[in-house]
Design a protein that fits this description.
This protein is α/β, with parallel strands linked by helices. It has 21 helices and 26 strands. The chain has a six-stranded mixed sheet with strand order 11-16-15-14-12-13, sandwiched between helices. A five-stranded parallel sheet has the order 4-3-2-1-10. The protein has a five-stranded mixed sheet with strand order 18-26-25-20-21. Helix 4 packs antiparallel against helix 15 and helix 9 packs parallel to helix 11. It starts with a helix and ends with a strand. About 55% of the residues are buried. It binds 1-deoxynojirimycin (NOJ). The site of 1-deoxynojirimycin has 7 residues, from loops.
Length: about 775
């Protein structure tokens, strides 16, 4: 299937000169004023035919325009056709001036792509992507990306380096903050939502920007979560897990992909022909272009795949990296590599055509400039509402003993708000917020104050300067304030700098003296509610029994504090669900719900914990199953988990048939009743297990989910349609197959649900 075609077919109205009329001396002004009935592909062909080799390689070069290079120098290079794209320039006037030089003063008048990391919002910041995945709400995620696109486009940006859709099962990895988590199905839904949000229905429309699915591929498996580290992923696992969200993004019309920094099975992604030619082009029919990551082409030599920059340029071009980001190996070495016959000009022409196709798809030839008047505008209030809705739905209630939450303003006269992240407008925004405006942030303290009004006395003690602080100097004051209040809200976690690119951690517990702070506050005997903001799952084992409730808020963005206040006081019920497993101890990593069964799966009977082993017990007395003596085999919190103020009961799992002929669909439903006394959202999840496969299958796989709002006392029936294609997996020969056989199916509120049915896939009669 032609992938980018969705975005590309809408290009009918672009005016450009007929190939018959094009001459090498044609001026740009002419190029942009002539019209013709040529198709986009014909226009691309005619443009490529006129380009010199240097102009072609110029299109394949993206230059950093944010590092103080004078507009003059950039302008000269653009004028000479040596730059096809810039990144990191978000001053609209500067962008327009550079665009003007490209369009009016370069020989062929080809407009620039203007790239920027618009990862989870532009000025208005949504929750970090792992938090957005916790909403399990693709519509909301789409709205957030749409808003980001509108804000970014107004600054002159026409291309974002998002969505990041690396599956990861390692919370030590700092970039888990940017990822949609551990599951390919959920990640695919997030990928599609973000692509749709950024690109809209019509990429030529103002307020839309090109998306970039990254990092292709396997980056999330970096060894021990060390950023940029090696990944070794068997092809079968790559196809069944890591490539799936990329395929979904390509099918949704994403126009660009970014090659990963990482080494995949011995061939770093930026030189990996298997990924970019075999899978992406030959199998998926991708028609957009691939950009390298920042300097990832010269780094091929650092990896040891090549000996120098020239060999790196050769490897990357041959592998199918169409554009080089930041470094200059293409512009410096490709001309000679072509002259020496090592890179065929066809390879260059193909890369240039891929890039021009995206420029056409954006309508840049017809509308190269950004003027404020023609941009869609969004009311400031609406922006904040979108950010708040996303934050509200991203927060996961991990624990709520004795229903300490929600806090009732009728029963509580004073609240102590304590902790290093309670009033930090910047930190709550999380990683990758180049353009985020902390001035718009509502902090938790402010949110609580706004909501509590005059009814409740809100007392604040920061206690620790930042999340990493070890000084306990402020603890006595915190303890005094806590002891004199009715309830304590501890706002803990990680500052934003502790996650994101190159910010991995080996110990993922609360940093600094925060655990000690929890302990001291616990001793006051007051109800303790922890609000935790972090860029990753944390190991909470050492504090979990010292707090009554935990709201896990990730880095919730601009409106985080307003959303958290609503949740604390019960204006809304928490409804986020974990997009990634929380380990008890870091040594359990990787631990994820869709693991394989192994030949010796642990059970409660066989998994004897270290402390329970009798003294001098013989080796043979243990169950010999796959678990850790000190951690057991279960996580602290499972994928899909998240509590509510409502009480949801699942029942009546109904399958329309027990046999599913190949090529058909099964309707499966369950009833969900709200036995609580508040209206709340629940994310209803569908899992399957394929009992026997020609390669072993995970013990559970997510195959559907639906967010539903249910009133107290109400029962809703949630129905899913499961096609046999949805059960397909890559088998031993790495081809997609659905095999006849027996399946288990579950519906419930987390991956641990036990409401189970069975069906069989049979050959079509
Ligand atoms: C490096 C990061 O890996 C990538 O995700 C980002 O888009 C580029 N730098 C550009 O900033």
């Amino acid at each position: 299937m032609a992938v980018v075609s969705k975005a590309l077919v809408k290009l009918g109205s672009i005016s450009i000169v007929s190939s018959l009329l094009i001459t090498a001396t044609m001026t740009t002004a002419l190029a942009n004023s002539w019209s013709s009935d040529l198709s986009v592909e014909q226009r691309i062909e005619s443009l490529v035919a006129q380009m010199s080799l240097v102009e072609k390689i110029g299109q394949m070069s993206q230059v950093n325009a944010g590092d103080g290079d004078s507009v003059q120098d950039l302008g000269d290079a653009i004028r000479n056709g040596r730059i096809g794209s810039i990144l990191n320039q978000v001053n609209r006037d500067t962008v327009n001036e550079l665009q003007r030089i490209a369009v009016e003063e370069s020989r062929l008048g080809i407009p620039l792509l203007v790239g920027r990391d618009v990862i989870h919002g532009f000025q208005t910041v949504m929750p970090i992507p792992i938090g957005q995945a916790a909403t399990w709400n693709p519509d909301l995620v789409r709205d957030g990306a749409r808003l980001a696109a509108i804000e970014a486009a107004a600054a002159g940006v026409n291309w974002t380096f998002a969505p990041m859709i690396d599956i990861t099962r390692d919370p030590r990895w700092g970039r888990i903050a940017e990822s949609p988590g551990e599951d390919p199905y959920l990640a695919s839904a997030m990928a599609v939502a973000m692509v749709q949000g950024f690109q809209g229905d019509d990429l030529t429309a103002p307020g839309t920007i090109a998306a970039c699915a990254k990092h292709f591929a396997g980056y999330g498996e970096s060894e021990s979560g060390r950023d940029y580290a090696t990944t070794n992923i068997p092809e079968n696992e790559l196809r069944n897990v890591h490539l799936r969200p990329f395929k979904a993004a390509v099918d949704a019309g994403v126009v660009t992909l970014m090659a990963s920094f990482s080494d995949l099975n011995g061939v770093p992604a930026s030189g990996n022909e298997f990924l970019m030619r075999k899978v992406l082009r030959d199998e998926w029919g991708f028609e957009g272009f691939v950009v390298s990551d920042w300097n990832s082409i010269p780094q091929l030599a650092t990896h040891g795949l090549t000996g120098n920059d020239r060999e790196s340029a050769l490897a990357a071009a041959q592998a199918g990296v169409d554009m080089e980001m930041a470094s200059h190996t293409y512009i410096e070495h490709l001309p000679a590599l072509v002259a020496d016959g090592l890179v065929s000009e066809d390879v260059i022409d193909e890369a240039v055509a891929n890039i021009l196709r995206v420029k056409f798809s954006l309508g840049l030839f017809g509308r190269p400039y950004v003027d404020a008047d023609s941009q869609p505008t969004v009311d400031a209030q609406e922006k904040l509402e979108t950010a708040k809705a996303a934050a509200l739905q991203s927060v996961v209630l991990l624990k709520n003993d004795d229903k300490v939450l929600p806090v009732s303003t009728d029963r509580v006269e004073s609240v102590a708000v304590i902790g290093p992240l309670a009033d930090t407008p910047y930190e709550q925004l999380g990683t990758w917020i180049f353009d985020g405006d902390p001035g718009r942030s509502v902090t938790t303290l402010q949110g609580i104050r706004d909501l509590a009004g005059d009814d409740v006395d809100v007392r604040f003690v920061q206690a620790l300067e930042i999340s990493r602080s070890r000084s306990t100097e402020g603890f006595n004051e915190a303890v005094d304030v806590a002891a004199g209040s009715d309830v304590v809200v501890l706002v803990l976690g990680e500052e934003s700098i502790l996650s994101g690119e190159a910010h991995s951690r080996a110990d993922i517990s609360l940093p600094g003296a925060q655990a000690e702070l929890v302990h001291r506050i616990r001793e006051t005997g007051k109800p303790v509610i922890a609000v935790i903001m972090a860029g990753r799952p944390l190991t909470l084992t050492n504090i979990i029994n010292e707090v009554d409730a935990i709201l896990f808020a990730w880095h919730p963005g601009t409106m985080g504090g307003a959303a958290i206040a609503d949740l604390l006081f019960g204006v809304e019920s928490p409804s986020g669900k974990l997009p990634v497993t929380f380990p008890r101890m870091v040594g359990q990593v990787p631990i994820y719900y869709s693991q394989k069964n192994t030949g010796k799966p642990p059970t409660p009977e066989t998994a004897v914990l270290m402390d329970d082993i009798p003294v001098r017990a013989p080796q043979t007395s243990l169950g010999n199953t796959a678990y850790h003596l000190d951690a057991g085999y279960t996580p602290l919190f499972a994928f899909g988990y998240g509590l509510s103020y409502a009480e949801f009961a699942y029942g009546n799992l109904t399958l329309a048939a027990s046999e599913l002929p190949m090529g058909s669909s099964l309707i499966v439903s369950a009833q969900v009743t709200n036995n609580g006394d508040v209206t709340a959202d629940e994310v209803v999840q569908l899992y399957i297990r394929d009992l026997v496969g020609n390669v072993t299958r995970p013990v559970r796989e997510l195959k559907g989910f639906e967010r539903v709002r249910i009133n107290p006392g109400e029962t809703v029936t949630v129905q899913f349609e499961l096609h046999t294609d949805d059960l397909a997996f890559y088998g031993r020969d790495n081809r997609l197959v659905t095999e006849p056989g027996d399946f288990h199916i579950w519906i419930g509120g987390s991956s641990e649900t036990d409401l189970r049915g069975e069906f069989s896939v049979v050959d079509a009669g």
